[in-house]
């Protein structure tokens, strides 16, 4: 059974699940140096994604399109070979508590000159199915709660077991976009007008708040305004909750909230305001989750939690939920945001057929490296891991490209810039070449068995989804990966992993005694990962590029001669 999941809107992607195994997921932003959050605006992208894996649309048994904005259904305007067409899809949220797996059946999906029928499930359905089916709970057939907190919805709690899933309750009336909206009113991303949502601000604010300190008086202001405008029995709050299915009124009410906050907090430092707002939301999330868990404690599997939706990328909130003692285990997939929605669409059809069974998957299921003609000015030679480790040990960063790209928004060693963490200047250097703000952290990638020695808790974290503190005795040894508040967005990898980055870390550890490196994504500013070495060479900001056993070294301009020609990396 081949199921093709399609996400047409932002974070567009095509995924294929065959007989319960994820074959691939190709995110648009990771193709052709596309912009971050790229949508699919032409159905030829679906045809080409299948063709890259030797498939024709006729080889697919079922197509599934992820749902989107709308109470009863959504609509998509896309291009096909025959011109513009309109497709219908499922709504954003299921229509009733038991309706998570209710589909809209559509036709008119034009692929390769042929029409295909398709199904479309609510957008949140894909978050629930992708989170649970990739979890350890699915493998052991354990039920679990699933928290979905996306940009345009309140945090929604579901209960999932092998035979089905159902909605339990909304935890509190705050949409996920409120975090990014705070950045439109305070701090370095403040705007003069109200504007639209900015999908990139939330992650940057997580870094920025390390510059500030929590002030309980500020927290109290947010608590008071939350009751007055969102949660209480006031007229303002009632109007806000009445508009939950319409994005524009929600956006307006959220901006009203922050304009009222700004009047009360005009004398406060913006970094303190944002740090305090972050903690206000964190406390609200944990306390309301605790109340909900107690309310539903009779359900089997009440000690397991999956987290999905864009807010699942907030590592501090994930850690707070894990550390609250409410759950025995907390699972966040590496693609909790919409980058996993194509996978979720395919999983939804799989679940309808087989129940909530585990998906056989690998995080390295993205696009393969593209071959291509390299620009002039680069030397090429075979390079062992030991030699590459010695280059890194000499404090020179390396673009590291290997195998298929990782899924989700985080570079996990397949499309990374790696560097020694021993120099405090390295973080600033990497931020400069990436055109990032000075307060942005650089993540560590560390051998799993040594992580507890360096970080607290240092528990396995293969997808950079929880918060860790750097132990005091290591902060001066690896300063480039220590954030302003002492934290680190850690990625761990087992030394028995077959991935090439594990082999490199082992060789680097042998040379230096340090089992970690700096790890940041290999990409143009504002775009997805480099699709291959040629794109990295054209960027030209790092002089060493390692691509599946071949080292490319930039030739200094003083050494270039007129006969230096282009190379082809194969």
Which percent band covers the strand fraction?
A: 15-25%
Overall body shape: globular
Helix vs. strand class: alpha+beta
Q: What is the number of beta strands?
A: 26
Described by strand count, sense and barrel closure, the largest sheet is:
8 strands, mixed
Query: What radius of gyration results from the CA coordinates?
Result: 24 Å
> Roughly how many Å apart are the termini?
34 Å
* Helix fraction by DSSP (H/I, runs of at least 4): 25-40%
Q: What would the average pLDDT be, to the nearest integer?
A: 94
Strand order of the largest sheet: 15-25-24-16-17-23-18-22
State the low-pLDDT regions, or none.
Answer: 561-565
The number of distinct helices, counting runs of at least 4 residues, comes to 16
Structural description of this entry:
Residues 389-536 form the Carbamoyltransferase C-terminal domain. The protein is an alpha+beta fold and 570 residues long. Helix content is 30%, strand content 23%. The strands form 6 sheets. The chain has an 8-stranded mixed beta sheet with strand order 15-25-24-16-17-23-18-22, with helices on both faces. Mean pLDDT is 94; it is low at 561-565.
Briefly characterize the structure.
The protein has 570 residues and is an alpha+beta fold.
What key phrases describe this protein's structure?
about 575 residues; alpha+beta; 8-stranded mixed β-sheet; 6-stranded mixed β-sheet; EC 2.1.3.-; Nodulation protein NodU; Carbtransf_dom
Q: Would you spell out the secondary-structure blueprint of this structure?
A:
Blueprint: E1 2-7, E2 13-18, E3 21-27, H1 44-51, E4 62-66, E5 74-80, E6 83-89, E7 104-111, E8 114-121, H2 123-133, H3 136-139, E9 144-148, E10 156-161, E11 164-170, H4 178-183, H5 201-208, H6 216-231, H7 235-242, H8 247-264, H9 270-295, E12 304-308, H10 315-323, E13 329-331, H11 341-354, E14 372-374, E15 378-382, H12 385-393, E16 398-401, E17 415-419, H13 424-433, E18 443-447, H14 451-454, E19 455-456, E20 468-470, E21 487-488, E22 491-493, H15 500-512, E23 516-521, H16 533-539, E24 544-547, E25 550-554, E26 567-569
Parallel strand pairs: 1-4, 4-8, 9-12, 12-13, 16-24, 18-22
Antiparallel strand pairs: 1-2, 2-3, 5-6, 7-8, 9-10, 10-11, 14-26, 15-25, 16-17, 17-23, 18-23, 19-20, 20-21, 24-25
């Amino acid at each position: 059974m081949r199921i093709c999941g399609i996400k047409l809107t932002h974070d567009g992607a095509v995924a294929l699940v065959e007989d319960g195994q994820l074959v691939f997921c190709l995110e648009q932003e990771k193709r052709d140096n596309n912009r971050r959050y790229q949508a699919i605006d032409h159905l030829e992208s679906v045809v080409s994604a299948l063709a890259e894996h030797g498939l024709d649309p006729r080889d697919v048994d079922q197509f599934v399109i992820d749902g989107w904005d709308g109470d009863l259904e959504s609509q998509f305007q896309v291009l096909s070979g025959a011109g513009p067409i309109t497709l219908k899809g499922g709504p954003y949220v299921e229509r009733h508590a038991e309706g998570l797996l209710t589909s809209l059946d559509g036709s008119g999906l034009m692929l390769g000159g042929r029409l295909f029928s398709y199904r479309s499930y609510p957008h949140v359905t894909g978050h629930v199915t992708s989170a649970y089916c990739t979890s350890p709970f699915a493998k052991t057939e354990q039920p679990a709660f699933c928290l979905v907190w996306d940009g345009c919805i309140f945090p929604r709690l579901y209960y999932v077991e092998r035979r089905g899933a159902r909605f339990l309750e909304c935890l509190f009336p705050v949409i996920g976009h409120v975090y990014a909206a705070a950045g439109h009113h305070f701090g370095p991303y403040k705007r003069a007008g109200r504007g639209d949502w900015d999908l990139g601000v939330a992650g940057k604010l997580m870094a920025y708040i390390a510059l500030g300190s929590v002030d309980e008086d500020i927290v109290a202001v947010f608590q008071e305004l939350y009751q007055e405008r969102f949660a209480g029995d006031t007229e303002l709050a009632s109007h806000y909750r009445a508009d939950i299915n319409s994005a524009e009124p929600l956006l307006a009410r959220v901006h009203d909230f922050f304009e009222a906050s700004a009047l009360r907090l005009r004398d406060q430092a913006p970094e303190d305001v944002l740090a305090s707002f972050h903690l206000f939301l964190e406390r609200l999330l944990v306390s309301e989750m605790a109340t909900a868990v107690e309310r539903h404690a009779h359900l089997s599997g009440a000690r397991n939690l999956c987290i999905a939706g864009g807010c699942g990328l907030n590592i501090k909130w994930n850690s707070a939920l894990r550390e609250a003692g409410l759950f025995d285990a907390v699972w966040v997939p590496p693609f909790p945001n919409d980058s996993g929605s194509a996978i979720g669409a395919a999983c939804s059809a799989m679940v309808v057929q087989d129940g909530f069974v585990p998906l056989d998957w690998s995080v390295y299921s993205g696009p393969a490296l593209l071959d291509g003609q390299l620009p002039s000015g680069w030397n090429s030679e075979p390079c062992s891991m030991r030699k590459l480790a010695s280059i890194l040990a000499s404090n020179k960063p390396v673009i590291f490209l290997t195998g298929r790209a990782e899924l989700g928004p985080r570079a996990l060693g397949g499309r990374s810039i790696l560097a020694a963490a021993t120099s405090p200047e390295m973080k600033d250097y990497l931020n400069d070449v990436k055109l990032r703000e000075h307060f942005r952290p650089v993540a560590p990638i560390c051998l799993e068995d040594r992580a507890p020695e360096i970080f607290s808790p240092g528990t396995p974290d293969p997808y950079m989804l929880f918060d860790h503190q750097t132990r005091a005795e290591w902060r001066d040894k690896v300063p480039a990966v220590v954030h302003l508040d002492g934290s680190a967005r850690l990625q761990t990898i087992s030394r028995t992993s077959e991935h090439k980055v594990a082999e490199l870390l082992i060789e680097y550890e042998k040379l230096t005694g340090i089992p970690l490196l700096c790890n940041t994504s290999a990409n143009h500013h504002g775009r997805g990962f480099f699709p291959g070495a040629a794109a990295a060479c054209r960027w030209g900001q790092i002089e060493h590029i390692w691509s599946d056993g071949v080292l490319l070294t930039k030739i200094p301009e003083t050494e270039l001669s007129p006969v230096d020609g282009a190379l082809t990396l194969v």
